[in-house]
Specification:
- This protein is mainly α.
- It folds into two domains: 85 residues, no CATH class; 164 residues, Bbcrasp-1, CATH 1.10.3160.
- The chain is built from nine helices and no strands.
- Helix 6 packs parallel to helix 9 and helix 8 packs antiparallel against helix 9.
Length: 258
């Protein structure tokens, strides 16, 4: 499924399937079976064909070039599936402060992907998590943009100044207006805090993505599956942080009383 990481076990199954369908192995078995039927020696040539087929399939399974080709093919499939998840967010379409953070995430995604590619290891699980992380960050940046635009349209300081003006008029008939302005200030200040939380949290997460890349480089010589799983878990944790932040911003934006 596209909504979960592509694991090493799935990669291994893809290698096995590729080996079992290896053209050389399949043709070799077919030739031995046909020869057995034609020569009347199927009882001898069929078992021999199965042994040769197994040997050819094992060769294909263990061949590093073949394995790399399978890995690239599976990565391409997974990437295409993820990219069908919806339109991407262009950092240039966002406010400079928000777009800069998103551009930083995309830059780090590229660095992590480059490190995985150069490591020549099946760290597809890490790449899947980074893809999902960037998607989550794009959605969060879009929500932050809504907060940014709303605050730009109604700056809290200006609304507060208007509230002070109304309250200072001493006109009892303007009490409802004062109440409405008070509610608006409350919501705007909450939105302002959420937007600042986005800036702070995203800066922290970008630093942590750099750490993920550094850890990836440091373990690139290792074939330990746990290394890939731990790195993927690290990125998954960052994605969960982004999701929680996005929910908080949605609540701030959708609260009534603006």
């Amino acid at each position: 499924m596209a909504d979960r990481p592509y694991s090493r076990s799935e990669y291994n199954r893809a290698l096995i399937a590729n080996a079992l369908l290896d053209p050389f192995a399949v043709v070799l078995l077919a030739v031995m079976l046909v020869a057995g039927f034609l020569l009347g020696a199927i009882a001898i040539l069929a078992p021999a064909g199965l042994v040769l087929y197994g040997a050819a399939a094992a060769r294909a399974y263990l061949d590093e070039d073949v394995a790399q080709g399978v890995l690239e093919r599976e990565r391409g499939k997974r990437r295409a599936t993820l990219e069908r998840g919806g339109p991407r967010v262009n950092p240039a379409s966002l406010a400079p402060a928000i777009g800069g953070l998103l551009a930083g995430a995309l830059q780090r995604e590229g660095r992590i992907r480059d490190a995985v590619e150069r490591a020549e290891l099946p760290y597809t699980e890490v790449l899947d998590e980074v893809d999902r992380f960037v998607r989550a960050m794009e959605g969060t940046a879009a929500r932050a943009q809504l907060l940014y635009e709303a605050l730009a349209e109604s700056p809290p300081a200006q609304v507060e100044a208007r509230l002070v003006e109304v309250q200072g008029s001493g006109d009892p008939g303007r009490s409802e207006l004062a109440g409405a302005l008070t509610g608006q200030v409350t919501v705007l200040r909450r939105m302002e805090r959420q937007l600042q939380a986005f800036y702070d949290q995203m800066e922290k997460i970008l630093v942590e993505l750099d750490t993920v890349r550094g850890n990836l480089v440091s373990v690139s010589a290792s074939t330990d599956a746990a290394s890939s799983q731990q790195l993927a878990a690290d990125v998954r944790g960052l994605r969960e942080e982004v999701g929680a932040l996005a929910e908080g911003m949605s609540e701030a934006y959708e609260q009534p009383g603006r």
